[in-house]
Inverse folding.
């Protein structure tokens, strides 16, 4: 059940926008943070706050792939299997993780820790093959590194994104997506190595944009 | 003569804590905002027009012209919406930009909003990039605290509120009208045009929607002048852009260069293809742009050059595949992507991608006949230009272009009763010597 | 001059080589229709906003009117015409033809080949257009998309998802037209489908329209699914018997049995939409309690026994003769105009009385005198073109004020037209009512909060209300419930006079307005002739060829009942009356009926037939021809659908009694009645004065606001349990302060007590004015009008258990 605090935070999201319905996507992120998935109760409360029908909320909640109708584990592990990552090894990684975790696509391990899903291009192609854990980048993966990662996560070992902070839980991540920051913005580097290769070459050659 | 690489947007990415306001301002950040606030909004529009900046999200529409379409006599509020839904396969420039230097974007948003007289702006960022969203949230918070955002910005009398809005997983929301529906809390399905967003966009009010890189380019144009910007690039494709190299190249990554650079040059900078392999095919601007091959290495990567070569510059998402890659597998996977991301609104895209996927899957397994290739092309013909938006068109690009260049490889699947390639050989961690 | 203006609004374009001029803004697909070119389409519907989703209507535009063509085929359903535009459809353009064939092929790859068992087979736009614009053989060899078999969107509406082509007609109808977006597109891409939210069904009063506009067999009704094939059905246009809307319907029957009803297409009235009551409420006339032959009360046994028509006529005539003029007639509000005319003439010529009143419903302390004066002065004889308000007037109105009327519940077609007016023309709707109803919200309306009983003062106040700003561009619609409020109808007349706004009366029943025109009132004769006007009486007597018509005003409905109870009247002729609507308790009614000589004309058994001396079965509308006069004053004629032996219209039955009595009414058939009505014509003399009754203060304490919801316990809704299951659950709505004083949670069961007794209902908070509560008048679970009392009653609430 959506509690009073969550309900008031949902209303707070809606109030950020000139037209409150604009708040629906972040509101559904918050529902996931509070409930662990999109629930009928969450849909009802969003509909109430936005004064739209539950069917309309349901239509939105089922359109976007980040919204989950089944409970997600502490760590949502996405393996990019769009063409480039797949070719570069994503298919092999995904197969290896399915075998290792004994789950299929969009399924959760019995201990409730890991939900495995193959994902589409996540805009990190220069780090292929890429995995996402709770929507944090895990760049340049191999089947071995992927197995080690999920094992560590299941064992409760702290792991960091290759370009970000220590991994938070899926529900904590969803809260940030709802627009409630978690104060981890300053963690991690400015950029990963691939992002900087062109810049480094320019620096080596003293190439610059022209002077103004 | 302009240098080969021209880091502007990427120039501060190697700075310590580059994402912070302090770091950004220490390198002159928000100076362009001060300049802009000293000019009239129309001056800003004129400068961006004069610079020749064309949309960096793929379509290449002149940015200044887009802004000038906003009817200033319309009594409704005006809105600026940044399209940060970077999802086109191969495209990976906006995400590192927002991660490393969110203030470049924020400053661009403020100047651009000022130009179009918007008092409310949104950054619609795809939801699957948590840390990028954190950095954007922090940057906006810092900008408010520094007086760059909010009421009466630096005493100018100009007010602007900026909201960072996380999407929830839908490629189609990169289409600007689908993005608007999504930002209004609806299913991200494209809208009828007309009315165009400039007239009736967000909340049926005049709205400018620009790509991250376009908006992030604005501070440099205002700070350095339109002339400076247009001194780079080619005749009709002015300025610089981030070229994203990925795939079987020695050093994949971001290369910021004037438009018109060639892939040959970029591969050279990137240390060539991975050891011992040759380029087989590539996308110039994401998977929706028709494939090109090694014969196109010297095509100038600007809007006109790539167009003449039969493809599109798109987002300069250069995905490079070497000879270990099965083109049928690659195309099938892209097609599955389009099927997964089709919003479902129109018949050709919804049903067409369903059918294409099944036909391609059959061919990849070596089942079917040569006539199936003609059937595929006919299906594509019935999707291309018949769909509601460009997603359907994009879905046909890899298929038609791959059949154009690699028909024999399709037939080889049929002859061999399956894929002739070893998928392991194309993996980046493939053992040395593995081959097709 | 006028012609020039018209011409400048026209746009001329060329379609398939044929030049056509159409109004600016016309869509290409409609312009093509003008010259008989049918472009195939699915998502397109002329009464829904364009969406361009299915892409079936692609055409080639070699010239958009600016000398340049579109490089790609364009959807003709979203493209407005332009001067000089050149359009080539599938008839002349290979590009357009191939585009259409391609889309059709895509639609069919995932469409099941179950046409032989699909309800839509034979009347299916997909089937038809696949024949006309598709290829004969499939090129698709792979796996079709499948879904588990049908899902219920509501108890009545089922969805077969694999048949659906997601054209969005149903969701757009629900959202745009009905304002009930309880179905929506869910999922995405190839999995996209129509759906509801978990636990929130598609409960819309207008849900059945989605079935009718579905271009495939995806939506079906539980009532009709798998019952029939379209080519086995005989279709007859008709008019709804459920309300005063005059809505056009189509009745499909097979072998003597109505299988389904659909909306007719009448742009001036209901457009293409009807309520679910109009659509699904037709099994009532074939229930087990249907009367099939006359009955007379056996003199010896005292029991009803079967009788022949001649015997029944004779017994009725004898009984009425014996009662002389001590007879009252209660004909109800559901008669056709022709049958009503027969009742009217039967009263005046055969019985020689004015003791007749069609209004068996709450009428207030004056027994409806003010209303009768209002009907005689202001309503009778108005019609489209003759001072009547029309649907078109509603759509064009700047402002519409509603009083004593809840259109969504009581006049669905008016509700839909007002919602359309609000959406399309920004018409402003104001409701003098107890609270902001769902219907009012959907019309974009504003509540003028009014306690029941205070409507007269509220109407008077509208004249001074700058926000409402009612003027000559406005319309006032008053419902029959205002009859119970002293001075309210008088105030409405005054408001219309001072503002210049038009005024119309919207009754609830299909026969109410025809009853006014035919004089089923103690003060009014046919054609608007006042009983009190000697000239009018003479005029009518002459037309009828009788010496005179009774000159004293008769007893009204309440008066008739009271006189029967007191023994001042000895006989009653009754038909189509709900005993609960009469101002008499159940026991007293039975006693009274036993005492009096009762002739009952009924379709089905009722408390009246149970106690009648003569029971004369009459035909339901589907088994006779006739006319309903709509609230507009529009005569809506219909033909007989089913030929049922022994099913006689009221006019034939009354003629039989009259002839036996020796005082014939001169007409035996609806056609004869219609012809005579036309001959008698309207009264051309002075109209009676409008009522001028002062307002009275509303009662103190908690007052009940109440009306019948669309789906309720009415007998004309018997027989379709799926439909009945879509009723809104009964609730008690109270204002915040009242709610707080109860000290219970929302949803708690409380007891509502009024003059008749008590009922228990779950309580919820609404924006009700203090001192006001609302509950539905009649629902199957809890009938407040039976258990508690009529609208305007003073009530108390005690609560409550959770």
């Amino acid at each position: 059940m959506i509690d009073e605090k969550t309900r008031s935070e949902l209303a707070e999201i809606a109030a950020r926008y000139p037209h409150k319905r604009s708040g629906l996507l972040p509101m559904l992120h918050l529902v996931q943070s509070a409930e662990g998935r999109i629930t009928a109760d969450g849909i009802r409360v969003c509909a109430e706050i936005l004064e739209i029908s539950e069917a309309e909320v349901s239509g939105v909640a089922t359109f976007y792939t980040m919204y989950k109708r089944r409970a997600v584990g502490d760590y949502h592990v996405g393996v990019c299997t769009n063409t480039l990552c797949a070719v570069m090894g994503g298919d092999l990684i995904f197969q290896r993780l399915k075998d290792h975790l004994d789950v299929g696509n969009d399924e959760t391990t019995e201990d409730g820790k890991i939900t495995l899903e193959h994902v589409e291009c996540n805009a990190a192609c220069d780090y292929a093959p890429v995995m996402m854990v709770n929507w944090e980048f895990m760049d340049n993966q191999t089947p071995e590194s992927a197995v080690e990662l999920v094992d560590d996560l299941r064992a409760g070992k702290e792991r960091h994104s290759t370009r970000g902070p220590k991994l938070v839980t899926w529900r904590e991540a969803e809260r940030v997506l709802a627009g409630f920051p978690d104060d981890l913005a300053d963690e991690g580097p400015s950029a990963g190595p691939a992002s900087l290769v062109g810049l480094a070459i320019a620096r080596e050659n003293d190439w610059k944009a022209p002077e103004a | 003569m302009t240098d080969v690489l021209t880091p502007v947007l990427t120039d501060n990415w190697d700075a310590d804590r580059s994402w912070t306001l302090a770091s950004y301002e220490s390198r002159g950040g928000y100076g362009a905002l001060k300049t802009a606030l000293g000019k009239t909004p129309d001056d800003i529009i004129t400068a961006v027009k004069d610079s020749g900046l064309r949309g960096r999200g793929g379509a290449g529409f002149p940015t200044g012209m887009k802004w000038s379409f906003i009817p200033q006599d319309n009594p409704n509020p005006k809105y600026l919406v940044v399209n940060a839904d970077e999802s086109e396969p191969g495209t990976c420039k906006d995400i590192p930009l927002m991660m490393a230097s969110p203030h470049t974007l924020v400053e661009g948003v403020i100047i651009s909003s000022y130009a179009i007289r918007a008092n409310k702006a949104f950054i619609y960022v795809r939801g699957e990039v948590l840390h990028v969203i954190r950095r954007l949230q922090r940057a906006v918070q810092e900008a408010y605290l520094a007086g760059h955002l909010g009421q009466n910005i630096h005493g100018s009398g100009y007010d602007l509120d900026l909201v960072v809005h996380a999407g929830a997983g839908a490629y189609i929301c990169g289409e600007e009208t689908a993005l608007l529906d999504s930002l209004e809390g609806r299913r991200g399905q494209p809208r009828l045009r007309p009315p165009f967003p400039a007239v009736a966009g967000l909340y049926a009010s005049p709205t400018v929607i620009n790509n991250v890189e376009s908006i992030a380019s604005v501070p440099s144009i205002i700070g350095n002048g339109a002339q400076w910007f247009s001194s780079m690039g080619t005749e009709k494709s002015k300025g610089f852009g981030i070229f994203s190299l990925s795939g079987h190249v020695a050093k994949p990554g971001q290369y910021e260069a004037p438009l018109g650079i060639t892939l040959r040059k970029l591969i050279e900078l990137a240390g060539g293809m991975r050891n011992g392999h040759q380029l087989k095919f590539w996308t110039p601007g994401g998977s929706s742009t028709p494939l090109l091959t090694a014969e196109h290495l010297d095509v100038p990567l600007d809007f006109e050059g790539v167009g003449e070569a039969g493809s599109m510059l798109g987002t300069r998402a250069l995905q490079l595949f070497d000879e270990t890659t099965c083109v049928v597998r690659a195309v099938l996977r892209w097609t599955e992507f389009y099927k997964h991301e089709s919003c479902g609104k129109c018949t050709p895209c919804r049903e067409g991608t369903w059918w294409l996927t099944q036909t391609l899957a059959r061919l990849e397994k070596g089942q079917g006949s040569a006539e199936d290739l003609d059937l595929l092309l006919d299906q594509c013909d019935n999707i291309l230009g018949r769909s509601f938006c460009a997603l359907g068109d994009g879905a046909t690009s890899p298929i038609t272009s791959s059949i154009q260049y690699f028909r024999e490889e399709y037939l080889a699947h049929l002859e061999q009763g399956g894929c002739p390639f070893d998928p392991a050989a194309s993996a980046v961690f493939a053992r040395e010597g593995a081959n097709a | 001059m006028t012609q020039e203006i018209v011409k400048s609004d026209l746009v001329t374009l060329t379609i398939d080589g044929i030049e056509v001029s159409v109004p600016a803004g016309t869509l290409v697909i409609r312009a093509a229709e003008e010259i008989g070119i049918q472009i195939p389409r699915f998502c397109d519907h002329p009464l829904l906003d364009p969406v361009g989703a299915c892409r079936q209507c692609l055409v080639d535009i070699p010239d958009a009117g600016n000398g340049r063509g579109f490089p790609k085929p364009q959807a003709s359903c979203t493209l407005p015409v332009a001067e000089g535009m050149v359009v080539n459809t599938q008839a002349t353009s290979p590009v357009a033809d191939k585009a259409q064939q391609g889309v059709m092929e895509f639609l069919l790859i995932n469409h099941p080949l179950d046409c032989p068992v699909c309800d839509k087979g034979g009347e299916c736009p997909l089937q038809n257009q696949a024949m006309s614009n598709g290829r004969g053989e499939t090129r698709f060899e792979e796996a079709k998309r499948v879904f588990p078999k049908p899902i219920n969107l509501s108890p009545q509406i089922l969805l077969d998802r694999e048949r659906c082509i997601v054209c969005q007609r149903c969701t757009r109808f629900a959202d745009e037209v009905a304002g009930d977006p309880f179905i929506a597109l869910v999922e995405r891409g190839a999995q996209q489908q129509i759906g509801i939210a978990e636990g929130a069904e598609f409960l819309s009063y207008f849900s059945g329209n989605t079935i009718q506009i579905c271009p495939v067999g995806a939506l079906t009704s539980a009532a009709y699914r798998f019952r029939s094939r379209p080519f086995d059905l005989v279709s007859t246009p008709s008019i709804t018997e459920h309300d005063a809307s005059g809505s056009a319907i189509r009745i499909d029957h097979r072998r003597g049995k109505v299988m389904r009803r659909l909306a007719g297409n009448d742009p001036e009235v209901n457009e293409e939409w009807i309520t679910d009551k109009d659509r699904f409420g037709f099994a009532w006339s074939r229930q087990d309690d249907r009367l099939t032959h006359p009955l007379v009360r056996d003199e010896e046994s005292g029991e009803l026994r079967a009788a022949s028509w001649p015997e029944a006529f004779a017994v009725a005539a004898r009984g009425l003769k014996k009662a002389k003029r001590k007879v009252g007639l209660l004909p109800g509000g559901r008669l056709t105009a022709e049958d009503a005319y027969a009742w009217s003439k039967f009263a005046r010529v055969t019985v020689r009385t004015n003791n007749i009143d069609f209004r068996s419903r709450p009428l207030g302390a004056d027994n409806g005198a003010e209303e009768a004066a209002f009907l005689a002065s202001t309503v009778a004889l108005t019609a489209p073109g003759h001072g009547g308000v029309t649907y078109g007037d509603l759509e064009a109105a700047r402002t519409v004020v509603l009083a004593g009327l809840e259109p969504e519940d009581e006049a669905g077609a008016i509700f839909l037209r007002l919602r359309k007016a609000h959406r399309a023309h920004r018409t402003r709707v104001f409701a003098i009512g107890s609270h902001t109803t769902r219907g009012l919200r959907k019309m974009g309306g504003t509540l003028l909060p009014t306690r029941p009983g205070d409507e007269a003062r509220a109407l008077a106040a509208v004249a001074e209300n700058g926000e409402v700003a009612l003027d000559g561009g406005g319309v006032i619609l008053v419902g029959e419930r205002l009859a119970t409020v002293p001075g309210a109808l008088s105030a409405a007349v005054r408001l219309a006079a001072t503002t210049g706004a038009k005024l119309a009366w919207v009754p609830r029943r299909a026969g109410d307005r025809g009853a006014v025109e035919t004089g089923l009132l103690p003060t009014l004769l046919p054609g608007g002739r006042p009983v009190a006007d000697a000239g009018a009486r003479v005029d009518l007597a002459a037309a009828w060829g009788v010496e005179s018509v009774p000159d004293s005003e008769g007893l009204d409905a309440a008066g008739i009942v009271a006189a029967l109870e007191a023994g001042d009247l000895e006989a009653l002729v009754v038909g189509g009356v709900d005993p609960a609507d009469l101002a008499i308790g159940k026991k007293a009614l039975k006693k009274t009926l036993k005492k009096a000589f009762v002739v009952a004309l009924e379709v089905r058994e009722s408390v009246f037939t149970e106690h009648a001396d003569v029971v004369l079965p009459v035909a339901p509308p589907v088994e006779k021809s006739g006319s309903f006069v709509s609230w507009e004053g529009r005569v809506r004629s219909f033909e007989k659908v089913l030929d049922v032996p022994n099913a006689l219209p009221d006019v034939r039955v009354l003629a039989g009694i009259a002839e036996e009595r020796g005082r014939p009414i001169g007409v035996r058939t609806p056609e004869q009645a219609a012809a005579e009505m036309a001959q008698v014509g309207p009264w051309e003399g002075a109209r009676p004065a409008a009522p001028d009754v002062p307002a009275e203060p509303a009662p103190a304490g908690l007052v009940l606001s109440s009306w019948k919801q669309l789906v309720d316990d009415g007998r004309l809704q018997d027989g379709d349990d799926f439909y009945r299951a879509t009723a809104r659950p009964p609730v008690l709505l109270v204002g915040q302060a009242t709610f707080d004083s109860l000290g219970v949670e929302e949803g708690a069961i409380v007891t509502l007590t009024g003059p008749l007794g008590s009922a228990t209902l779950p309580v919820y908070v609404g924006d009700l004015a203090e001192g006001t509560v609302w509950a539905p008048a009649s629902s199957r679970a809890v009938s407040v009008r039976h258990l508690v009392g009529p609208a305007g009653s003073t009530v108390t609430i005690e609560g409550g258990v959770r």
In short: Residues 53 and 59 of chain A are 10 Å apart (CA to CA). The mean pLDDT of chain A is 97.
